[in-house]
């Protein structure tokens, strides 16, 4: 456990990032209120600030000189009930999966496919988290943030956030806003059941479930994720390290001549998404290990820390993979993870 609302020094960030990288924060504070957040953002002693959520989407390659501000704002409130929808306001420091489970417990729908994604609720809009055919934008109503310069509160509607695949206004304006709460619009009944993506249908069938409720969908997603993805508590990782590249259809058609089996998803009439994991696998990296840095044996998209890899070692490996994919396919795969 860490203290809240007190600045500490030389704090190891190993427990605070899912890669388990042992860098230090020269200065560290966990904030439990928006007022405290405002107060520390104004501190002239620490001109540089570094916002930390659940640490599940970052690779730390060096000690952090800036003041690390861990977002520990808590609270889940139902703010409005309509006939078919319930609006829930959630503080940024709530754990995402715990919130998903809270909603399912209240029979509020829309989040079930996003079960077991690590991290904080307040970070979820930044890369518009997504899994199994659902993205955050599908249930997002609005969010509150602080302007990091003026410290004024700012509200963002769904449109303001300009959500796209693993992308948003916040991602393109990194560091300018600190999200303090997110409001969701969840279904109170007539849930939109979405089981067409990935292995959910097969998993439910295995369990003999024909008309699943949201709890059963959540459990199916949890089962699939647990069987496919390494648990960061057992093996340090940050989920998918690279984004799936979206290429012009003409590029895809040319590749298909050499690789007829190339997996793909049509994005639009002119664009195709190719799984980065497949590209990496073709370059021979799946399951490779270099010291304590490696590529997961089942998921070529997941870089792993077998124990004491440094962030620099993992980043060097990521660059090597990126270069190999570029040389073999002439496609640039870009990191999904934030590298510091
Ligand atoms: C095993 C595993 C599986 C994963 N699966 C998925 C998946 O299926 N789908 C998916 O989309 N992602 C997935 N991820 C990635 C990750 O869970 C998400 O990106 C998550 O939203 C990150 O949240 P966090 O709080 O841990 O972010 P952090 O890593 O703490 O921060 C990420 C970035 O956001 C900034 N930030 C943090 N909090 C705030 C705030 N309140 N306001 C403004 N900026 C902030 C940080 O400065 C940093 O730049 C997975 C990760 C792991 C480890």
From TrEMBL:
Primary residence: cytoplasm
Catalytic activities: UDP-N-acetyl-alpha-D-muramate + NADP(+) = UDP-N-acetyl-3-O-(1-carboxyvinyl)-alpha-D-glucosamine + NADPH + H(+)
Active site: 166, 240, 336
GO molecular function, one term: UDP-N-acetylmuramate dehydrogenase activity
EC code: 1.3.1.98
Entry's localization field: Cytoplasm
Stored SUPFAM superfamilies: FAD-binding/transporter-associated domain-like, Uridine diphospho-N-Acetylenolpyruvylglucosamine reductase, MurB, C-terminal domain
Domain FAD-binding PCMH-type, chain residue ranges per copy: 21-189
Cofactor(s) the protein needs: FAD
Pfam families registered for this protein in UniProt: FAD_binding_4, MurB_C
Pathway: Cell wall biogenesis; peptidoglycan biosynthesis
This protein's UniProt keywords: Cell cycle, Cell division, Cell shape, Cell wall biogenesis/degradation, Cytoplasm, FAD, Flavoprotein, NADP, Oxidoreductase, Peptidoglycan synthesis
InterPro entries: FAD-bd_PCMH, FAD-bd_PCMH-like_sf, FAD-bd_PCMH_sub1, FAD-bd_PCMH_sub2, MurB, MurB_C, MurB_C_sf, Oxid_FAD_bind_N
Highest taxon listed in the record's lineage: Bacteria
Family in the record: Belongs to the MurB family.
Protein purpose: Cell wall formation.
PANTHER family: UDP-N-ACETYLENOLPYRUVOYLGLUCOSAMINE REDUCTASE
NCBIfam families membership: murB, PRK00046.1
Protein name (database record): UDP-N-acetylenolpyruvoylglucosamine reductase
Organism in which the protein naturally occurs: Galbibacter pacificus
Gene name for this UniProt entry: murB
């Amino acid at each position: 456990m860490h203290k809240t609302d007190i600045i500490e020094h030389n704090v190891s960030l190993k427990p605070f990032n899912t890669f388990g990288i042992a860098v230090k924060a020269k200065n560290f504070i966990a904030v439990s209120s928006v007022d405290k957040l405002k107060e520390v953002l104004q501190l002239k002693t620490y001109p540089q600030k570094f916002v930390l959520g659940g640490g599940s989407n970052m690779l730390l390659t060096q000690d952090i000189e800036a003041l690390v501000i861990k977002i520990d704002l808590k609270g889940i409130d139902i703010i409005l009930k309509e006939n078919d929808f319930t609006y829930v306001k959630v503080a940024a420091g709530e754990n995402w999966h715990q919130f998903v489970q809270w909603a399912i417990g209240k029979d509020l729908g829309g989040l079930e496919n996003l079960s077991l994604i690590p991290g904080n609720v307040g970070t979820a809009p930044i890369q518009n988290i997504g899994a199994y055919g659902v993205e955050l934008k599908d249930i997002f109503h609005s969010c509150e943030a602080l302007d990091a310069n003026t410290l004024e509160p700012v509200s963002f509607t769904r449109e303001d956030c300009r959500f796209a695949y693993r992308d948003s206004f916040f991602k393109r304006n990194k560091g300018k806003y600190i999200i303090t709460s997110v409001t969701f619009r969840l279904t109170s009944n007539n849930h939109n059941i979405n089981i067409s993506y990935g292995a959910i249908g097969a998993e439910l069938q295995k369990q003999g479930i024909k008309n699943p409720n949201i709890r059963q969908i959540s459990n199916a997603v949890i089962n699939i994720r647990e069987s496919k993805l390494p648990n960061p508590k057992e093996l340090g990782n940050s989920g998918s390290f690279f984004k799936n590249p979206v290429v012009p259809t003409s590029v895809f058609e040319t590749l298909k001549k050499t690789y007829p089996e190339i997996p793909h998803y049509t994005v639009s009439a002119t664009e195709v998404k190719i799984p980065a994991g497949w590209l990496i696998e073709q370059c021979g990296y799946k399951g490779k290990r270099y010291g304590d840095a490696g590529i997961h044996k089942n998921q070529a998209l997941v870089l792993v820390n077998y124990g004491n890899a440094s962030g620099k070692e993992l980043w060097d490996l990521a660059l090597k993979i990126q270069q190999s994919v570029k040389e073999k396919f002439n496609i640039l795969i870009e990191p999904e993870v934030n590298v510091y």
